[in-house]
User: Fold these one by one.
Assistant:
Number 1:
Amino acid sequence: MNIAWYIVLSALLFTTGAVGILIRRSPMVILLCLELMLNAGNLALVAFSRMVGNGQGQVFAVIVMVVAACEVVVGLGLIVAIFRRRLPLNVDDLRELRG
Amino acid sequence: MEAVLFFLAAIGALGGAVGVIAARNPFFSVLALIVHLFSLAVLFLLLTSAFVAAAQVVVYAGAVMVLYVFVVAYVGGGGESAWEPIPGQRFLAPLLAIALFVELSVAVLGSALTALDTKGPDVPAGFGDPAAIGRLLLEKFLLPFEASSILLLLAAVGAIVLAARRREGDAA
Amino acid sequence: MSATAWCWLVLLFPLAGSITIALGFKALPAKVTGAIGTLAIGLAFACGIAALLNLLGDSPEARHHASSLWDYASVAGLDIKLGIFVDPLSVFMVLVVTGVSTLIHLYSFGYMQSDEGYRRFFSYLNFFVFSMLLLVLAGNFVLLIVGWAFVGFASYALISFWYRRETATRAGMKAFVINVVGDIGLVLAAFLIFRELGSFDYGTVFERAPEAFSTNGWTITAICLLLLVGAFAKSAQLPLHTWLPDAMEGPTPVSSLIHAATMVTAGVYLIARTHALFVLAPTAADIAAFVGLATLLVAGTIALVMTDLKRAIAYSTMSQIGYMVVGVSIGAYSAGMFHLMTHAFFKALLFMAAGSIIAARANEQNIDKMSGFGKAMRFTAATMLCGSLALAAFPGTSGFFSKDEILAYASARGGMYLIFTVLGYLGALLTAVYTFRLVFRVLPGKPCPEAQELIDTGHVHHAHPFNPASGEEEDTDVGFPGPDHHIAEQSAPMRVAMGVLAFLALFAGFVQVPGVDEAITHFLDPVFADSPLAEIVPSVGASWFGLAIGAVISLAGIGIAYFLYVASPESPRRLEARFRGLHTFLYNKWYFDELIDVLVVRPALAVGRFANRVFERFVVDGLVTGTEGTVRGASGVVRAVQSGFVRSYALLLIAGFAGLALYFLLTSS
């Protein structure tokens, strides 16, 4: 398959993740959709790495995975802390920062 | 053969993605994501990136998803109410996403990068091997490598701080 | 050094004194500031004498020098220098101002001793002298206006010196507002002069004036009338005179210096200085003379019934300045200036004596409540008598020679001007009567309780501090008069000052005896030589005849006062009962204050109210609040974006990203 197929697939997965973030209200699911978008990015990176012919894109993808792992850790820690404080796990109810 | 694999993996990825965003129960979303990650690993293999595929399965689907499973089991999580407090969100979100997808596709398909139409150049045998990635990590990308290790350390410390119990019991 | 250099020093010393006292306000002890203030003016007087001697070294025609420090504005046809003009007239005024000011500073050294604002007083007083000297020495109209305005400010600051008294602050505002009206006239006159003659400099203006204007033309008459507006406001002539009696709210040295000897004579100086313009507009000069005459008579009649000691003397000042204005308007320039000098001496002395008596009477200023101070305070009584004799033009005193010289000139000019002579003598009669009314009321007779206390114990009576005008009780804090009262008998500086002035009041007239030695006329002649009116000189015989009539009238007036107030004390009450309406009319100062209130003050307040209620609320506030409302509304709309919903932020993010991508797609293809 042409590289273009991979790129278009990556775009599709990215936008699916975006829709998920905008639609869902549970912080858990929003984090999962974030993972979707990150992975779509990884796919694009690896595809381009294959297209160019050196491994730099893949290294980038590995680093992205590391970052995603850290972000998941922190995000889940936040969710656990919110749950411990008996606050509603609902992004719409946690809205005190507003004008 | 390759095309068949591509389409199977693509369907798996897309199905997993749709499952993530559509499932009522967060546990099912996590499972859908695991499926999605495995499909992506197949796609990586199709792109001769063996190490990345392995890392995807081991790190992502293995470690990160296990974290998710633990937290979902702890937190639980029911469904969400159907009522949408933000007016126009349910309507605008898919619209914008479709617009974005169209733009990205146009950008890719109409771009001047002719290499996109090929399967890529012929690559040497060790392309995507751990050795090649390792060499790149330790030679050319040493700084990002070290930086990401520090980031991992910070994240670990941060997670412990976030989830720690307070001295006098849990202050609400 | 040249005369102009001495005159720059004359300006420097009072300014330096004022600034030094002001800067050392907290640091310097009170007595030191008093000494600095007095010394500064004393030095200025010494420099004035030096300038005089220097000037006398020149030949009479060459006795005018201009000197400038730097160019103040030299742009677009304007050429204004910071320059002074030294000639006999300005040196004369410098000597009178600095001389009398030194004595008054000396008097204040003792009189204001217990006042909390002692240092502020001397700083203001020095600043006033500086401004007056600036006015007098100015070499162009711009600097004249600067000095004029400074003098107005100094007067305001000193009238409202006891600033916690509401009557004092109101009086200060009244004086300032009326003076501003005069300032407007003066400034407009300066503009017109510049437009017609192209310069502000005295020398240039007076040279070009005869060629540029035809006699009695519209422009020159307008200029002179505007100058008169300024002069009348500053010199308290009708109808801009209502501020002067209220200005008696200030401390007595202030009344003595500013409102008797110096500031109120600024108008007279102005008319004398610009006599070249008035010569070209005889109508304006005649108007000035008639206004002076009217003031003379009106003020004299009011002084007859005034019961407040200081206000009676203030009306007397107004009346005497009327004489001076008449003098310099009809052409008796040196006579008018001579009367200015003698009036400065005896009026300052009268105010000083009045201050001493009021202090003995513990701030009471009503002569109905004073009597018998002749026995209690001999020195004050003696000096008050000297001053009153001079004011009433008793034969041989300085006032005698000066007042009658003006009237002799008027009769020498003849024609219509005989009115001035006749009515001037009537005014002299009134002057003698009201002056000795005051003397006979306050000095002889049975001592009032306070005077008795002074005779018996030698202590000055100490009462609760109160406001003499409104009677309300006060404090002795800053902004009020101090707790102690100082009388001349107990204060050496006061005695020295009053003694010197008494001597001058009695004997200073002998420098200008007709036919014998006309020192002032000879000295001032070169200044006025260009005026055709200066050639009219009354013959010596006519002068002595006038002096004789003046003597008779003065003695008659004193006699009438003696009859009314000593010989048959019930006569004033019977007269008052007979002429009740007239008495009320005079007592209410010819209702001028009420007239001005109706004509000017009420319409101004109505305009202010209209501006506040209608214009301010709807137009100005509407604009401002409307803008504010618009901004607030717009920001309310914008604020709605900050909803707190993370998902709407994310939506905006994605939308922005989509928009950006679209833009790049469109621009790249």
Number 2:
Amino acid sequence: MNIKKYTLLFIVISLIGYSCKKEDFLDLYPKDAITEQTFFKNENDLKLYANQFYPLLPVQPGLSENNSDNFVPSTRDAFLAGTYVLPVTGGGWTWVNERNVNFFLNRYQKADISQVIKNKYVAEVRMFRAYFYWRKVVQFGDVPWLSKDLNDLSAELYAPKNTQKQVMDSVLTDLDFAIANLPLPKDAEIGRLHKYAAATLKSRICLWEGTFRKYHGTGDEKKFLQEAANAAEMVISSGLYDIYSTGSPNTDYYNLFIQEELSTNREAILPMRYLKDIVMQGLTRTLGESGTGFSKNFVRSFLSKDGLPTSLSPLYKGDNTIEDEASGRDPRFKQLIATRGFVYQIGANGSKDTINLPRIGSNTAPTGYQMVKGRSPDLVQWNALQSTLDLFIFRYAETLLNFAEAKAELGDADQVVLDKSVNKIRARVAMPAMKVNVIKDPTSDFPEIPALIDEIRRERRIELAAEGFRLDDLLRWKAGKQFEKPETILGMKLSPEYRAQYPASQVSGIIVDANNYIRIYSNLNNRTWNDKMYHYPIPTQELSLNPKLAPQNTGW
Amino acid sequence: MKKSVKRSRLLLRIMKLSVVQMVLGMVFSGVTLAFEGRAQDFLNKSITISVEDTKLRAVLTLIEKQADVRFVYSSRAIKVDRKISVKTNGQRLSEVLFKILDPLKINYRIVEGQIILNPIDNEPAPEKEASVLNTFADTKVAEKVTDLGVKGKVMDDNGEVLPGVNVVQKGTQKGTSTDGDGNFSIEVSDPRAILVFSFVGYATQEIQVGNKTSFDITLKVNDKALQEVIVVGYGTQTKANLTGAVSSVSGAVLESRPLVNLAQGLQGLVPNLNINLNSGAPGKGASYNIRGNTSINGGGPLILVDGVQMDPNLINPADVASVTVLKDAASAAIYGVRGAYGVILITTKTPSKNNPLRVNYSTSFTSSRPTRLPKYVNSVDYIAMNREADATGGRTGGAQASNKFTELDMENATKYFNDPVNNLPVYVDPGNPSIYRYVGNTDWIKELYNGGAPMMDHNLSLSGGENKTSFVASLGYLDQKGILKITDQKFKRYNASLKVNTEVTKWLDLNFRMNLNRTENATASDRNRTGMAESRIGGDLRPNMPVYHPDGHFSGQGNWTNPIALATLNGRMKTQANDLWLTGGFILKPIPRLRIVSDFTWNNFQRNEQEHQKEYYEYGVDGILLGSFPWTKPTRVIERNDNDYYTVINSYADYEFNLGGKHYLKAMVGYNQELKQTKFVSTSVKNLIDPTMPAINLNNDDRPIVGGTQGDWAVSGTFFRLNYDFAKKYLLEVNGRYDGTSRFPRGNRYVFLPSVSAGWRISEEAFFAPLANIVNDLKLRASYGKLGNQAGDQLGNYPYLATMPAGTIGYIFGSQQGTAVSVPGLISPNFTWEKVTSVNVGLDFDVLQNRLTTSFDWYIRDTRDMIVGAFPLPSVLGTSPPRRNAADMRTKGWELSTTWKDRINSDWSYNITLALSDYTSKITKYDLNDTKTIGSRYQGETLGEIWGYDTEGFFKTDDEAAKFDQKQLWAGTWLAGDIRFKDLNGDGKITRGTNTVGDPGDRKIIGNNTPRYQFGLNLATQYKGFDFTVLFQGIGMRNVAVEGQEFWGFTNEWQIPLKHNLDYWTPTATEAYFPRLRLGGGGNFQVQTKYIQNAAYMRMKNLSFGYAIPQTLTNRIKIKNVRVYVTAQNLFEFTKFYKSQDPETVNQNTYPLNRSISAGLQIGL
């Protein structure tokens, strides 16, 4: 009996013991995640946080110019087709990156390290912030500027927009801080931001803002144009960078974009590196099935080898065939566009697939002008997402073009300026140097602007083709009417004689206009441009959630 | 020791044998201990007598007076003139009886307030404890005979003879049945033999033969339904005394057919236990829901197997003894914060003492085909449609194909289509001489699902028990092949279990359980190409692509993926999981009426997945090597390992007592704690030394990828329950639990959750007596309870802590891939439990001698303070809004379960069961969307509502289309044959308005996708040895707005239209069902009235036909029973849902459900 009683007592006591609150038992914490409370304590934490923004850097994109007058994709670009619908949510009005940079900037001070080291990472993050806000301005014009991360109760959620000028002044402050505090390239780990990457971005952003103000007539453009020129000049005078050249004007430009390693290439201010099995890209394959091609308007803008536009050059043979069209032209023509004799692919057994007639008729090149910049003939690079060719984030040629354009817009472009900028680029492809007193192209797309600025724009269009600048450029120049030109949606000339060289069935579905230029869009003679498209609209739900965002962007 | 023996006699046991089991002669049974109130009543009366050398007859008379009882005995069998001496002082009657009768070798039984005395001929029979209630009331004197032939007659209450009653000598294969006059005769081996009389609809009766040779047996109508013992939280309860909303299903219903998992067997049987089979893929589990919408965060019932949380998809359905569903808060309250949305208690078969060894074996073979599969258009139609849609896009500013079909494609495809023998399904691409263009005509569905898939299962169980120790052991094996034949999927499940109970002393029982659930699955790897392993193959099924090139290589070049090549040439994915459960426990009975039950469970779940991704090559024209198929390159092996530990302590004590006869009280108090720790590790290596060998060690990879996760959660709760009943008429139950969870911080983590329920057994009232013959039972129930919900699985283990995700990024620093830590989500510091309150009112009634049994429940479930994460805030916030307790929802519903069972004659019985339920939910509070933006929740929203446009018809002319403004839906040019929507708000154009409920533009609520009126209708009949069951299951009302490729076809240029899409508008087919062809639909693919589908259905879930070979035959070969059966599952359905999709899964891109036919065999030894 006694044993039983004790057992019972034991059980009862155990039960009561169990019944108490067991807080310790229930105190469980994450074992596989970092918590905010313990982060931002040392340099490594700041670095790890800043790293998340690097994949957002603007990499030379290859095909993102389908939204410009340079390309004619077989599927119409929805925005340029005017089919963009006022969205309820989304539509680019997302502020994740902007919050994430501010989250850092409001907490990095917790780290127990010197201000100098902190500033290095603050500089990186502020450069990203400048970039993110600039893109918001490009898309929407006036936007709210936030300098801290918000929570669900923040009053700033319901704040009005800041003006474009206010936002861009803050962007400029961030850029200047970044340039001042980022290390020199030699002191930065390969791939990390440095002083001249920031200066290049500054020249790009300030040129955009300066010319936007000038051509959209909002005033105060001088300051930004000057900042653009200064930033570019800072990069130039560092002496670290140069135009890549091996003395082969007919291949250097093409080869520059199929390099395995750009980190040692002096034209690369900041390369996007791809290494086998670590991070790889798929541009070569994408370009093989792109469903797009250069537009007639773009191809016409190539100068002839004598430096004169087609309208003036005796070397121009007309465009009855693409072979005629390419002969005697800027050597970049054949380095950008697949023409007869171009080695398209080298097979596993060494057999060469060489271009004869332009490959129209399937999804390779609807316009006949098949873009090959960045496309390697190497079969290995053709494997989807297995290519290790490096791409550019910041390329020196752009810096030079930013410099020349800013100087020209300021009215400060003399021969010295041209010789240390655009003429370096022309020298690579053995084109004659640009002169200050260049003759105005009578068939220019921009008849109203001075000849020099016009020619710098042309040089920019050719040199930076397919690198993602063209739409931004047209918008800042307020050149939306350019999209209305029929040539911007036409392809090469497919005369009956030329067509006859193809198997009939391959080209039977291809339609041409009265002058035998390939028409990509059968029912469309030309696009129409509506000035509201200079900015995207703010999603309707945002306006109803925060009425202070009103007014909606013009025209929407 | 003596005392213990006495108590063991007083422990009255109720054998729970369902009717079906008895009829089928099946031997699995669940035995549950319980106290029986009334017998206890007078056996507890205290007796004080003191006699010396007095005749037994006189002593019994004394006791009769003191205890107000009556003894019944035969004076020839019981020598009442013997003289005895006895002295007691207030001892209980039970003890006194033992003291007096045991030395005289007299046994007693209690029948309706009378104590019947019988002599014990020899040693007490081992079965003496069994079923004392159901004995005979025969007090006639029988001569003691040596002849062991026994005969007799069986009648019912009204004196009608009962033919066909089974008469079996217990523990043997000896048996017979009564003839047309109710007579039987049987030879028994010795006088201790016990005869068991069983008959459908009647209570089974057992009698000891003793020295009698002739018996008149009266079988009573079975009121066992009421005495049935139902497993409830931490205990059991008789059905008669239930006050909450509880349904239960006996394991017997699962035994008559082959089941892939338990859910398949439960579907349609319990009203408002809503089971979603999700998919028909081998090894795929089902999901469970009780009573409809839970929280807007989701959440489902707590599912416990023998008291611990176990994946019901892993257990062997053949091991299940019963399933109880606790639906309302009051019955689930004992489980605290995890029982907010109901509890499913699965009890596996339990050992019972004093049973001979039994061996049961069952097996079945099944062949399956998919229920419904999409039917795609042929190549010529496809190319024509693609070209037409592309052209329309070009003409109107709409989407165009980037990969266009040419005139030549069409020409060659037509040639091949018309004459596949003399034409090739390929031709050389004029744009690229090394690759083909495809012009074949392949029915990919036919290629992928080519033929039926087999399944077989084997189950073996052993059970038995001696005096003290008893056990159940079982082995199960299931082998299933996938119906997506091309993946050659093989799924196997092994279940082994052992349960041992032993009575160490009279006050201590020990028990031990062991379970191993093992699964193996092998299928084609699907890395980077989702759909191969888990679901059907969706994209890239273009009919113009042949399976093979003319030179014999698989087709597929560049952006063409050949699923058959991928399934065949890529590696395999093999998964194996071991789920091991060990439980040890004890039941302690230190003093009478107190029971302490305690057990500890340890579980280890291990899962390993090996994925082999293999590089393979693609070939172009004439077999020219194009390179590797890019998505499975490089060759790689990935090993993923889960290793989870889970421990549970359950401990409770209950005590019951009577106060003055009419008051009965039972109290229970207990404690539960659980801790789960999960760990996951994955490793991925490439550069395999032998690419065909998926061995993780045979690699030359200097950059293996290693990943993993860890997590844990714990709960700790103390609970109690009080049951009170007054005169068996008024029932009251109070439950409560004080519960804590690791998922909230200190100060916020504990909550007290009370509940109460009450019942009124109207049929027990005196005033009800006149109706008693018709209405056997009538009970009204009501309950109220409040439960917390920790919303665990939806919010993760540590929802109150802001964690910063870390990982690698697509950027290289130096020569290393970068790593980064990113921003944490916003956390609201003070969010806490969701609270679930439920009110339940129920009515149970049995009428017409229990022929018609009905249970009806009506409930309201309020979910308050739901944790809301997604609500509209200005996007400048830059992250998802933090979770807040900000929403309330009310779910109202009802459920009805009704059974009619009857006999047509002695050979033929049948029953019909209908389970019917319904619910709807409304958001009653939602602070975070004042503007009532559509798409977010809003106050007043009915869950499942579908907003859409009203279809007016097609535009008749381009001109009409041009004049009508639908620009906001789509800004391109609308044409004749596009859909014209109704201008509901009369503003002359079609818009979305401000996307709010107040201004929805031209939209309105056009339907609701909540499944309404879910039902199951089960018909079963037995005729002699034959049994037949058919189960229909379905949904009475449901709308589904099917979107996506499976309905519209060309949602983009890469999608393939289905045959139903051929009915599209053209200038000559203006009455077509679908609008004109457009890639992406232009603005046509809106949710709209015309295309809402009716997803109501009635499906024949199960049809089974079985035959039990008569025991008279099987006995000769020493086999107790043999049953053979054939079963069909999902044989057909009635629905108006469109043909390409199953109305049950309502998602074309899931692995299809199976239609199957099986044949099976069950043997008992």
